[in-house]
């Protein structure tokens, strides 16, 4: 008589098995992660800013962090097999740098200009949200990966690769900061007389981002093996889904508030994704080369 008991799946017993299980989980849920979550996130954030949501749903820190982690998951899972001691050290150093530069920013006004947080983004240490690296480092990594694909062989030249990635990180903040200010995430103050303001964001912020982006891009460039990144990008297909989420989430938020230049820049990122064949029908199905197949 056959055993009719339900056979529970065996949990992964090795790092490789865990990585393959995570690959399958992300692949099976690409639409939910990269379209459903950012669309709902945009609606909830706008509704919070417009005071349409009651407490505790309005700007709920847990929901913000949870949603961000879900949208980051394709990038995190994609990079996970490439994490060596060198990568771990680089990411740890960049994490420490992110906390340090943010603390410097809120206490001295350098390098971004004086600003303060307007909503609760979760637990903080010395006024800096603990989740800051989850917000910052993936932005730089997404820009880096997109540039590797768009530049092709030209990405081998450091003098081409690094300036292009830095410029792309700055362009991502052209999308992010106006949307965040419109929502009330943070606010700039002590603005100098005659300061040029771009959708509520002083130009000093972008000068600061040049500094931050340069250090972050150089660190990631040192830490990761570019050839391994390209191979992983080709094998998975989902590593840039976090950038799809970025376009949908922040493009939608900026459109609601009428920030049309940031919307146009977000659209350029969408075009870049189309050119890499990452932002197409493959979002709704598994890639041809499943990473868990031999």
Notable characteristics:
disordered C terminus, 6 strands, two-stranded antiparallel sheet, 294 residues, two-stranded antiparallel ribbon, 10 helices, globular, mainly alpha
3D structure, described in words:
The chain is mainly α and 294 residues long. The chain has one domain (16-284). The chain has ten helices and six strands, in the order ααααβββααβββαααα. It has helices at 15-28, 30-49, 61-79, 85-108, 132-151, 158-183, 203-223, 226-236, 241-256, 260-275, and strands at residues 115-117, 124-125, 128-129, 186-188, 197-198, 201-202. The strands form three sheets. The chain has a two-stranded antiparallel sheet with strand order 1-4. Strands 2-3 form a two-stranded antiparallel sheet. A two-stranded antiparallel ribbon has the order 5-6. The two termini are 35 Å apart. Residues 285-294 have low confidence and may be disordered. Keywords: Membrane, Transmembrane, Transmembrane helix. This is Carotene biosynthesis associated membrane protein. InterPro entries: BABR_hydratase (IPR053540), CruF (IPR017823), CruF-like (IPR007354).
């Amino acid at each position: 008589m056959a055993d009719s008991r339900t056979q529970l799946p065996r949990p992964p017993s090795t790092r490789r098995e865990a990585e393959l299980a995570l690959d399958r989980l992300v692949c099976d849920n690409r639409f939910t992660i990269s379209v459903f979550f950012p669309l709902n996130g945009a609606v909830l954030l706008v509704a919070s800013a417009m005071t349409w949501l009651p407490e505790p749903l309005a700007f709920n820190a847990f929901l913000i962090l949870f949603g961000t982690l879900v949208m980051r998951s394709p990038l995190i899972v994609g990079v996970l097999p490439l994490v060596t001691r060198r990568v771990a050290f680089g990411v740890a150093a960049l994490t420490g740098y992110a906390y340090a530069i943010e603390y410097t920013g809120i206490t001295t006004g350098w390098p971004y200009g004086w600003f303060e947080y307007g909503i609760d983004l979760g637990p903080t240490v010395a006024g800096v949200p603990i989740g800051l690296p989850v917000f910052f480092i993936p932005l730089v990594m997404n820009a880096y990966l997109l540039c590797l694909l768009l530049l092709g062989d030209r990405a081998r030249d450091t003098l081409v690769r690094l300036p292009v990635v830095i410029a792309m990180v700055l362009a991502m903040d052209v999308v992010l900061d106006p949307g965040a200010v419109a929502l009330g995430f943070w606010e700039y103050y002590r603005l100098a007389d005659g300061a040029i303001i771009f959708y509520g964001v002083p130009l000093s912020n972008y000068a600061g981002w040049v500094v931050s982006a340069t250090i972050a891009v150089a660190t990631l460039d040192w830490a990761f093996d570019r050839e391994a990144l390209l191979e992983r990008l080709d094998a998975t297909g989902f590593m840039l889904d976090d950038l799809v989420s970025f376009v949908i989430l922040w493009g939608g938020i900026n459109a609601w508030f009428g920030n049309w230049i940031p919307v146009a820049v977000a659209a350029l990122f969408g075009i870049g994704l189309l050119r890499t064949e990452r932002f197409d029908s493959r979002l709704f199905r598994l890639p041809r080369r499943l990473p868990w197949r031999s």
